[in-house]
Write a structure and sequence with these properties.
The structure holds two protein chains of two kinds. Chain A has a single domain (25-325), classed as ABC transporter involved in vitamin B12 uptake, BtuC (Orthogonal Bundle). Chain A contains 14 helices and four strands. Chain A is globular and about 55 Å long. Chain A is mainly α. Helix content of chain B is 31%, strand content 27%. In chain B, strand 16 and strand 17 form a beta hairpin. Chain B starts with a strand and ends in a 6-residue tail after the last helix. Classes of the chains: A mainly alpha, B alpha/beta.
C-alpha cells in the first residue's frame, strides 16, 4: 500500500507541473504573440495609445467571455450571446430615449439579460435540451425579433441624457485609461472570486467535471445551471451597455454579430476545457488579450481585412493544438 | 478428456493487496465449468489474467497444451455483464463490427447477412440477423454476444453472471445455446452466484475464497447448493467484536409499498433511530434502484416515504439534506468522484454553502472540517489540496464516506460502502459506523458482503427480483439463509 501511494504521489507531483503549464498556456501564448508583435512593430505596438486601444477594443468581448467561461466549465455553450447583446442593447437605448434615465436603461438591460439567460438555462436544465441546440435557436430568435422590431435598422441615443450615456464608455480615467477597461477588470475580479471562492462557483466546476456525482452529492444541478446562464446573460447585458455607450447607437442587424465566436475563442485559448470541469478566469483574460493582439497586429501590418479571419483561425487552432499536446501528456 | 486451459500457481497483487495466491485452475475441453465465490474473491482477476487483460506476477498458463501467447489468449472470449453491443445496428452488423466484409471500400451487405445467418442457423438458434439489436430481448442480446465470440473463432467463452438480468424463460434459451456449444467442443466458464443454475448447467466447478481455490471437482447428482455455499463462505466470521447491541429509537425512515415498474415492488421497510439495517441480495435484486428512488435521484411509481413517521416528498437529491438523510451511491468513479476538484472540495461538496459566510467559502472552516474527518476515519492523505485521483481507491472511498457524514445526517444510506477497501480499513469503517450508531445516527447498508451484515447490522432485509423476501434479526443472520432467500428459495 505504501508503495503504490508513493508512486501515485510522485506521479501526481509530475502531473501538477504539466498541469501548471496547461493551466497557464494562455499566458505563454500571449507572451509569445506579444514578443512577436514587439519584434515586428515595436514602437507603434508598444505606444500607450495602442496598448490602451487594444484593452478598450477587447473589453466588451472580455466581459462576455467571463460568463462564457462559467458556461463552458459546466460543459455547456452559449451561442446566443451576440444576438442577446444586440437585443439587450436595443432595449437599453429604447428605454433611455423614452425616459432619459440612464439608471432605468441599465436596469432594463440587466433585467432583460437575466431573463434571457434564465430562459436558456431553464430549457437546458429542466428539459435536458443540449445547450448547443437551445442557444442555436435563441441566437436566431433574439436577432430576428430585434431586426423585425427595428426593421433591420438601429437606434441612436438622443435627448438630454445622450451625452451622459455616451460618457459611460468614452471617459478616460486620468485622461489615459479608458473606462471600459476598468469595468472589465472589476468584473474579472468579481467573477474570479465567484468561481473560486463561492459554493456556487465550485458547484459549477463540479457539475462540469461529473454531473451525475454532483447531482448525487445533493447539489441542485438544475438551479446551478439556470444561474450560470442567467449570470452570463447579465454580463452580456453589461457588455451591451458599454457597446451602446461607446458608439452612441445600437444596430439590430450588425451589433454583436460574431461576438459569440470571439468569446468562445477567448475562453478556449484561455485553457478552459470544452468538456467541462476545468478553466480559469485568468486564462480567459489572457485568451481575450491574445485575440486582441492578433487583431491589432494584423491591423498594424496592414493585412488585407478579408484575410484577417484566416490568420486568426490559424492562430486559434495552433494555440489549441499546443495546449492539447500538453494536456494529453498530462493524462 | 483433454484440458483446454491449465493455470498453475497463479499469483497477482495490486500494490500490497494480494488478490490471487497460488491459484490452480483447469478447464476441460467441452465442459461447462462453474467459477464460484463471493464478491472480491479474485474470480474476475483470474479471468482477466487468463484473457491477457492483466499480467500475472507468477505462475504458468497453458492453452491447448502450449504456453499461452497473446494469439492463443485471443481465442478466449470474456462476455461481461454489461454487453458491448450497439443497439442501433442490426445483429449481423454487430457480429461483423470491426471485421466487416468489404470490396473496394464498400460493404458486402448481402454476403455478411448470408454468412451470419447460416452461422446462426448452424448453431440452431432462431434469430433473424437483420433484426436491430435494440429490439432483441435480453437473452438474445446475450446470445448475439456469444455468436460474435464464436465467429471470431473463440474456443473458450467466459460468461460473467449472464443470467442476472434474465427471466426464467430467457435463461432457458441461453442454457440451450450453452449445451449446443458444448456438443460442438466449445468450453465455457460460467461465473454465477445462482447455485441452482450451476447445478443445472455445469459439469465441473471451482470455488474461490479470498484469492485461493478452496475446492474444485465434478458436479454430481449428490452435490447440493448448501454444500457449495458452505464452501464459498468458509468459517463463520466472528461478529462479536464490532457488533454491540444498543437501545433503538422510534422509526426515522419508513418505506410503505414503494413500487417502480421493473425495478422494485411493494417494498415495506423501516429504520429506527440508531439502528443499522442491512439490505442484501444478488446483483439485480433492485436494492440500489430502490434507494436511488428514495433519495430522489430517480422517481418511483407508487408508495410512500416517511421521515420521523411523517410523509415527505423528496423530488430531487437536493431535498434529502433537509430531512437529515445522506446518501453514498455505489460505483465510486461514475457516481462519487469529481475528478477536477481536490480532496477537500470533494469531501465537503454537499456543505460548501453551509461553510460560507457572506457568500464566500470560509477556507479555515473548510480545512478544519475536512481535517476532522481525515483524522476520524483515518484517511491517508499527503495534502487535502491534492487532486482526488492521487488517492488509492480505498482512501477515495473513505473521502466519499466522509462526504456522506459531513452533512450531520440522522439517516445515512450507504450503497456498497466498502467497495475497493482493504480488510484493515474495512474494520475501521465498521467501528466508525458502530460508534456513530451509538450516538443515535441510523444507517442503511446496501451490500452483498455477508460479513459486513453480520458484523454491523441489527436487522437485514433480503431482496430478490425487486421484492423483500425475508427479514432476519441480528442473531439469526447467517449466510446460508441469506443465500437461500436471495437465490429464490424459502426459509423453513
Amino acid at each position: 500500500m505504501t508503495n503504490t501511494q508513493e508512486t501515485s504521489a510522485s506521479k501526481h507531483k509530475h502531473r501538477s507541473l504539466k498541469g501548471l503549464i496547461a493551466d497557464y498556456s494562455a499566458i505563454f501564448a500571449f507572451l509569445i504573440l506579444f514578443i512577436v508583435a514587439v519584434l515586428l512593430k515595436g514602437s507603434i505596438f508598444l505606444s500607450v495609445s495602442n496598448i490602451m486601444n487594444i484593452l478598450m477594443n477587447n473589453s466588451i468581448i472580455g466581459i462576455i467571455a467571463l460568463g462564457m467561461t462559467l458556461v463552458i466549465i459546466t460543459a455547456g455553450i452559449d451561442l446566443a450571446v451576440g444576438s442577446q447583446m444586440a437585443a439587450t442593447g436595443l432595449i437599453a437605448m429604447t428605454i433611455l430615449n423614452a425616459t432619459q434615465s440612464i439608471f432605468l436603461a441599465i436596469v432594463a438591460a440587466v433585467f432583460a439579460g437575466l431573463v434571457f439567460g434564465a430562459i436558456t438555462g431553464g430549457l437546458i436544465s429542466k428539459f435536458g435540451v443540449p445547450a448547443f441546440i437551445v442557444t442555436l435557436g435563441t441566437m436566431q430568435i433574439y436577432r430576428s425579433v430585434s431586426e423585425y422590431y427595428f426593421d433591420g435598422g438601429g437606434i441612436l441615443a438622443t435627448g438630454r441624457s445622450a451625452s451622459a450615456f455616451t460618457a459611460i464608455a468614452n471617459t478616460k480615467l486620468f485622461g489615459i485609461i479608458p473606462m471600459p477597461m476598468i469595468y472589465w477588470f472589476a468584473l474579472c475580479i468579481l467573477i474570479s472570486v465567484i468561481a473560486r471562492r463561492t459554493a456556487f462557483g465550485r458547484h459549477v466546476y463540479a457539475i462540469g467535471s461529473n454531473e451525475r456525482a454532483s447531482f448525487l452529492s445533493t447539489i441542485n444541478v438544475n438551479r446551478v445551471l439556470l444561474l450560470v446562464y442567467a449570470l452570463s446573460g447579465v454580463l452580456v447585458a453589461l457588455a451591451s451597455i458599454i457597446e451602446a455607450s461607446r458608439l452612441g447607437s445600437m444596430n439590430s442587424a450588425s451589433s454583436g454579430s460574431g461576438y459569440e465566436m470571439d468569446a468562445i475563442a477567448a475562453v478556449v485559448i484561455g485553457g478552459t476545457s470544452m468538456a467541462g470541469g476545468r478553466g480559469t478566469i485568468l486564462g480567459t483574460v489572457f485568451g481575450t488579450l491574445t485575440l486582441g493582439i492578433i487583431n491589432n497586429l494584423m491591423n498594424l501590418l496592414g493585412v488585407p481585412s478579408f484575410l484577417v479571419g484566416a490568420i486568426k483561425g490559424i492562430i486559434i487552432i495552433g494555440a489549441l493544438l499546443i495546449q492539447r499536446s500538453v494536456s494529453k501528456e498530462e493524462s | 478428456m483433454t484440458d483446454v486451459v491449465k493455470m498453475r500457481q497463479i499469483e497477482k497483487a495490486f500494490g500490497a493487496n494480494v488478490v490471487l495466491k497460488k491459484v490452480d485452475f483447469t478447464l476441460a475441453t467441452g465442459s461447462i465449468h462453474a467459477l464460484l465465490g463471493e464478491n472480491g474473491t479474485g474470480k474476475t482477476t483470474l479471468m482477466n489474467i487468463l484473457t491477457g487483460v492483466y499480467t500475472k506476477d507468477h505462475g504458468d498458463i497453458e492453452i491447448n497444451g502450449a504456453p499461452a501467447t497473446p494469439a492463443s489468449q485471443q481465442q478466449i472470449a470474456f462476455i461481461h455483464q454489461e454487453l458491448s453491443l450497439v443497439n442501433d445496428l442490426a445483429v449481423y452488423e454487430n457480429l461483423y463490427l470491426g471485421h466487416e466484409l468489404k470490396r473496394h471500400g464498400l460493404l458486402r451487405r448481402r454476403e455478411m447477412i448470408a454468412t451470419a445467418q447460416s452461422f446462426v442457423d448452424q448453431i440452431g438458434i432462431a434469430l433473424d440477423v437483420t433484426t436491430m439489436v435494440g429490439d432483441l430481448n435480453p437473452s438474445y442480446k446475450q446470445i448475439t454476444e456469444i455468436v460474435r465470440a464464436l465467429m471470431r473463432d473463440a474456443k473458450v467463452i467466459i460468461m460473467d453472471e449472464p443470467t442476472t438480468s434474465l427471466t426464467d424463460v430467457e435463461i432457458k434459451d441461453v442454457f440451450k445455446m450453452m449445451r449446443t456449444l458444448q456438443d460442438q467442443g466449445v468450453s465455457l466458464i460460467f461465473i454465477s452466484h445462482k447455485l441452482n443454475e450451476v447445478l443445472e448447467i455445469c459439469d465441473t466447478y471451482t470455488i474461490m475464497r479470498d484469492g485461493v481455490v478452496v475446492s474444485s471437482g465434478q458436479v454430481t447428482p449428490e452435490l447440493t447448493e448448501v454444500q457449495l455455499s458452505n464452501q464459498m463462505v468458509g468459517k463463520e466470521l466472528a461478529n462479536s467484536e464490532i457488533y454491540q447491541p444498543r437501545p433503538l429509537g422510534k422509526p426515522v425512515l419508513t418505506l410503505k409499498g414503494l413500487t417502480k415498474a421493473r425495478e422494485f415492488q411493494n417494498v415495506d421497510l423501516v429504520v429506527h433511530g440508531g439502528e443499522i439495517v442491512g439490505v442484501t441480495g444478488l446483483l439485480g435484486d433492485g436494492r440500489s434502484e430502490l434507494f436511488s428512488a428514495v433519495v430522489g435521484a430517480t422517481v418511483f411509481d407508487a408508495g410512500q416515504v416517511l421521515v420521523n413517521e411523517r410523509p415527505v416528498r423528496i423530488r430531487t437529491t437536493a431535498d434529502i439534506k433537509r430531512y437529515g438523510i445522506a446518501y453514498l451511491p455505489k460505483n465510486r468513479k461514475e457516481n462519487g468522484i469529481v475528478p477536477d476538484l481536490n480532496i477537500e472540495e470533494n469531501m465537503a461538496l454537499p456543505i460548501l454553502g453551509r461553510l460560507s459566510r457572506g457568500g464566500l467559502i470560509q477556507r479555515g472552516q473548510l480545512t478544519a472540517t475536512v481535517q476532522r474527518y481525515v483524522k476520524q476515519i483515518n484517511i491517508k492523505v499527503a495534502d487535502v489540496k491534492d487532486v482526488i485521483g492521487s488517492l488509492s481507491g480505498g482512501n477515495q472511498q473513505k473521502v466519499l464516506l466522509a462526504k456522506a457524514l459531513c452533512t450531520n445526517p440522522k439517516v445515512v444510506i450507504l450503497d456498497n460502502p466498502t467497495q475497493g477497501v482493504d480488510v484493515g480499513a474495512k474494520a475501521e469503517i465498521y467501528h466508525q459506523i458502530m460508534d456513530l450508531a451509538k450516538t443515535g445516527i441510523s444507517f442503511v447498508i446496501l451490500t452483498s458482503e455477508i460479513g459486513e451484515i453480520q458484523q454491523l447490522c441489527d436487522r437485514v432485509y433480503i431482496m430478490a427480483h425487486g421484492e423483500i423476501r425475508a427479514e432476519l434479526p441480528h442473531d439469526a443472520i447467517n449466510e446460508r439463509d441469506i443465500m437461500l432467500v436471495a437465490t429464490g428459495g424459502q426459509l423453513d
